[in-house]
Write a structure and sequence with these properties.
The protein is an all-alpha fold. Helix 1 runs antiparallel to helix 2, helix 2 runs antiparallel to helix 3 and helix 3 packs antiparallel against helix 4. Helix content is about 85%, strand content about 0%.
């Protein structure tokens, strides 16, 4: 968390991406997405957004089918 604060304060993109990757490993995708967005990493952000959209879509489909 100390590294995250430093990278966030300084705007160090590579550091923010590394923190985001560690959040993904720790199964914290929302926090990872925040780090990717702050680092302006469009590719990683898009992957997580797409996964979130698929999960939400599946949940809505299940709700309709109940």
């Amino acid at each position: 968390e100390t590294a995250r604060r430093i990278f966030q304060t300084t705007g160090y993109s590579d550091g923010l991406i590394r923190v985001g990757e560690s959040y993904l490993e720790a199964k914290r995708p929302i926090d990872a997405l925040k780090m990717f967005k702050l680092s302006h990493d469009q590719a990683r952000s898009a992957i997580l957004i797409e996964k979130a959209a698929m999960v939400i879509s599946k949940m809505l489909d299940e709700e309709v089918n109940e």
